[in-house]
Design goal:
Two copies of one chain form a homodimer.
Chain A: E1 6-10, H1 17-26, E2 32-33, E3 37-38, E4 53-54, H2 57-65, E5 69-75, E6 78-83, H3 84-92, E7 97-100, H4 103-112, E8 117-122, H5 126-136, H6 141-155, E9 163-166, H7 170-184, H8 192-199
Parallel strand pairs in A: 1-7, 1-8, 2-7, 3-4, 8-9
Antiparallel strand pairs in A: 3-6, 5-6
Helix pairs in contact in A: 1-7, 5-6
């Protein structure tokens, strides 16, 4: 059985990354999220090892120091990160894994696992991104201006990704992402064992 | 507009290459065959420049000598080849092109156009290929044995291709091929102009 593939998805705020992944994972494709580690407190209904691996700040910082995380970030005073071992074990089972992370994290993953496939989701245009951020109605003008500036910065990193998807039509963007996940499994370098098996078999 | 992509498909006899391509091209995807050049006589219903570019032997050999063909082969005493200019002009229009050619031709195309995407279609197993060749009922035992030997040789070249598809279930193989055609259009290196456009646009 071929090993699973690690996908990394990044996008500026307002590009629909969460919805695209949610809809893609709802389809019957070989793809799952990895369980992250975090220092934030467990909430009602959450389960250790399923929702997150819950860690103390000391435990988390030891994981960073020991190189046990593929990437990590700090958000609202809490650490969030991807345990390398969890990802590797899932890939070993032939299961594809997707990480939804920022560009710095993505670059780190690619450094540690060059075979990871990086996908960047682009807005159809900056005007449209501007319009979408206003439409959400959750942020003031200053925050939106900051988000647009941040988006421009992030988009300049898109060239380091393997694929770019334009989220113009949501359903098309989901199909595009699924096509990438499917197509990557047919890459020759992921199927060498199968080719060897065929090659070394002589009929009769 | 992004330039078209050149796809090259090869497979041993009996692997369903023709049917897969026929079914894929019947879908609404951006993909067409290139018009080949040939020295064989024009048949009733055929049109110059649509069915083939009909050439004399001298003209064809001059095209070979002048490097005007991406690949060529001789079959039953006639030359068949792919004019480079025709392919380039079609790609310029943003149209993807597929060539259905043997491994030697495919290697030549990849040498002349390294950005071409090579897809190899594999049988599920050599036993199954053996069964399918017998089922066609068009060849005697000796010919089938030769075809299997040839298939083994060809499969050892699959590692030089970008993708391999296993034709176990025909409809799945068609979907797999379409996923590859779709996904390749999202490769970052084919979308750099779009990223640049976004990057260089400042809202307000």
């Amino acid at each position: 059985m071929a090993k699973g593939i690690l996908f990394v998805v990044s996008a500026p705020a307002g590009c629909g990354k969460d919805t695209i992944l949610e809809k893609a994972l709802a389809k019957e494709i070989n793809l799952c999220y990895s369980v992250s580690a975090t220092t934030r407190a467990m909430r009602a209904g959450e389960t250790e090892g399923i929702s997150y691996y819950f860690k103390t700040r000391e435990e988390f910082e030891k994981m960073i120091a020991d190189g046990e995380l593929l990437e990590h970030t700090e958000y609202c005073g809490n650490y969030y990160g991807t345990p390398k071992q969890t990802v590797l074990e899932t890939l070993e089972l032939g299961q594809n894994v997707v990480l939804k992370i920022e560009i710095e994290g993505a670059e780190n993953v690619k450094k540690l696992m060059p075979e990871a496939v990086l996908v960047f989701i682009l807005p159809p245009s900056m005007q449209e991104l501007d319009r979408r951020l206003h439409k959400r109605g959750t942020e003031d003008e200053e925050t939106i201006a900051k988000r647009l500036k941040q988006a421009e910065k992030e988009i300049s990193f898109a060239v380091n990704y393997d694929y770019v998807i334009v989220n113009d039509d949501l359903n098309k963007a989901v199909r595009d992402f699924v096509a990438i996940v499917d197509a990557e499994s047919f890459r020759t370098n992921r199927n060498k064992e199968y080719i060897d098996l065929l090659k070394n078999f002589t009929v009769k």
